[in-house]
Amino acid sequence: ICNSLPWPTDVSGLLKTKMCDNLPPIQARPAEGFQSSRLNSLVEKFASEYSSNPQFCARAPGRVNLIGEHVDYCGYAVFPMAIDLDILIAVETNITGKLNLVNVEDKYPSFSCDINNVEIDKSCPNWFNYVLCGVQGIKEEGGIQGLLTGLNIAVSGNIPPSSGLSSSSALVCASALAVAHVHNLSISKDDFAEICARCERHVGTQGGGMDQAISFLATSGSARLIEFNPLKSTPVTLPHGAAFVVANSLAPMNKAATSHYNCRVMECRIACQIMAKKVGLAWKEYQRLGELQKVLGKSLPEMMTFVSRTFESRPYTKAEICELLSTTEEELDKCTLSENTRHIQEFKLHDRAQHVFSEAHRVWEFKRICDSKSESALQDLGKLMQESHNSTKLLYECSHPKLDTLVDLSKSLSLGARLTGAGWGGCMVAMVKEEDAEEYKQHLIKEFYSKEPSVNGKEINSVLFSSLPSPGACIYRF
Ligand code: ADP
Ligand code: NG1
Ligand code: MG
């Protein structure tokens, strides 16, 4: 974090890069197009609520993950691209010390609190918790001296919520960016990504950092291979001739409202700790399968063999896990499990760990094939996407019957299709030949969406769309 440097609002792009490489850009508010009309409605909402105009707007995009699901929190690389759907936050400072929040959508009720006394209630999955995470993240790690300035905020989002396209992190990232901008902090994109990955955990989900990383580090025109510990992001050009189509299964899944997501994080952690203990390591020091692999110096296929030799493909009771770790339930609750997973009595270890190691391997294969520019690249990538879906469905058990239907319907006209994001509902991403994209979409409309009453009257483009890689978070000057 370049705390000593001022936020370079008044300098050219070139100088900005010299002052602190890699800052989220500050740019003119778009004067035309779709983004501009959304900004106009947001400003209207802002004015009707606060009787004034915003000083600036922070924008953070959602993402679609092409491959590498449920591996980021194990320390493994992922392969997302930002989409052009986003969260926009209009902001002005106030002198009351209050954080006032309104949303353009009535379903998200207004909220107000003392900005220097933020409390995030994990037990209530309120929308404003994500804004509070961003505020808290910058307060804790942004290097602010003294008190935070009060803010009036209006929010507008068009990322379908609870659908695996990372609406939650876009809201956290836009909020953190807004608070940092108000306080003149120069925080690099990488630092924003890491701060936001940590602070989103205040809502209770133990995420890995993919969503926040791509929201800040995305660049238009390329997907990114994102590695963790340390954070590293590499642009990867996707092969010519491929279109990525996102299809919403219309089954929402709110990650903060259930323990499904954290249960998987814990299953991987328990598998890691039992394997660490088996080879004589101090198991409490190991949280992530990726860390264990590094210490053991084994390849991913070797780790898969290790998993097969260690676990059976059946659930393990908490008592059995304690026996394998020579520990007590109290200690397991304290050292390993999150608050919302302590009630769970059975954990699957073999299948979850096998998914993680095989999926981590597929991510690197995906990158290798993209770089190879081989003639069979599209077919090879499609095959990896299909294998990834099968693994999330069968080994990780995080698919949904509607997602499986969409993936099955994609077999004839796509090269490969898979659930994207955390799953249990939400979206699927399919890779199709550009020339087949329209026919493919019509096929899904006929066979899936025409049978879904909830789509009636909705724009089909809001549930079924192609997406090109979009740029990352920025500030719009007003
Ligand atoms: P995902 O990140 O896959 O979209 P999550 O369950 O992680 O799904 O987060 C969804 C939650 O994010 C919503 O329930 C809501 O609280 C919040 N959210 C998403 N979009 C908006 C929005 N436009 N305005 C307010 N809150 C939003
Ligand atoms: P979504 O579905 O967008 O909330 C979640 C996690 C990611 C990653 C994916 C699964 C958060 C903020 N996001 O994404 O880190 O683990 O699931 O690959 O926890
Ligand atoms: Mg989310």
Write the SSE topology.
Elements: H1 13-19, E1 26-28, H2 34-50, E2 56-65, E3 80-94, E4 98-103, E5 111-114, H3 128-141, E6 150-157, H4 167-182, H5 189-200, H6 210-217, E7 223-227, E8 232-236, E9 242-248, H7 260-278, H8 289-296, H9 300-310, E10 315-317, H10 318-325, H11 329-335, E11 346-348, H12 350-372, H13 377-394, H14 401-409, E12 416-419, E13 427-433, H15 437-447, E14 464-466, E15 474-477
Parallel strand pairs: 1-15, 4-6
Antiparallel strand pairs: 2-3, 2-15, 3-6, 4-5, 7-8, 9-13, 9-14, 10-11, 12-13
Helix pairs in contact: 3-4, 3-5, 4-5, 4-6, 5-6, 7-12, 9-12, 12-13
Bound molecules: adenosine-5'-diphosphate (ADP), 2-acetamido-2-deoxy-1-O-phosphono-alpha-D-galactopyranose (NG1) and magnesium ion.
Quick description:
This protein has helices at residues 13-19, 34-50, 128-141, 167-182, 189-200, 210-217, 260-278, 289-296, 300-310, 318-325, 329-335, 350-372, 377-394, 401-409, 437-447; strands at residues 26-28, 56-65, 80-94, 98-103, 111-114, 150-157, 223-227, 232-236, 242-248, 315-317, 346-348, 416-419, 427-433, 464-466, 474-477. The chain has 478 residues and is α+β, with helices and mostly antiparallel strands. The chain starts with 12 loop residues before the first helix and ends with a strand.
Model description:
The structure is a single chain. The chain is α+β, with helices and mostly antiparallel strands and 478 residues long. The chain contains 15 helices and 15 strands. A seven-stranded mixed β-sheet has the order 1-15-2-3-6-4-5, with helices on both faces. Strands 12-13-9-14 form a four-stranded antiparallel β-sheet. The chain has a two-stranded antiparallel ribbon with strand order 7-8. A hairpin with a 4-residue loop joins strand 7 (223-227) and strand 8. Helix 4 (167-182) packs across helix 5 (189-200), helix 9 (300-310) packs antiparallel against helix 12 (350-372) and helix 12 (350-372) packs antiparallel against helix 13. The longest helix is centred in the last third of the chain and has 23 residues, at 350-372. The radius of gyration is 22 Å and the shape is globular. The two termini are 26 Å apart. Mean pLDDT is 94; it is low at 1-19.
